[in-house]
Fold:
Amino acid sequence: MQQTTLPQPAKFGLLGFMFGVASIVVILIQFSVLFEPQEKSAGSTIGEIAAEIRLSAARALSGEPAPEPEPLPQDYTWMITIAALCAGGVAVVLGGIGLYRNEPHRLSYLAMSFGISAFVMQFVFWLALLICGVVLLVSIIGNLDSILE
Structure:
């Protein structure tokens, strides 16, 4: 008589896969919201930044104190990002539990890869934005002599 074991259903792997897909979707939606059309054009925003730099430099040379900053409106995007990254972490953990319990491996691997992808995507996206911002500021500072005229 042969002993056969019935395959376990992939409960943890499937749940982790769902969490991983949800985290990727939320991260992608958050990225797309950043590129929605703004009230101001990019040129006017860059011009305002350059004008603020000029006024700040003039204030520093004259010895005037800096004005009080305006309070910013409440922004919940960081909470959404943390929730999405937590869902990615839960996906990795559930995928690991699924592998430990010898569930079918495909969903567990997918859960872990989607969870890790959410973290990597967030990091790479913000790193790219940081590099673009530094390049923009360097070009503004490099052209500051023509702005001050």
User: Anything to note?
Assistant: The first helix runs from residue 11 to 34. The helical segments are 11-34, 42-62, 77-100, 105-142, 144-148. The chain has five helices and no strands. The mean pLDDT is 84.
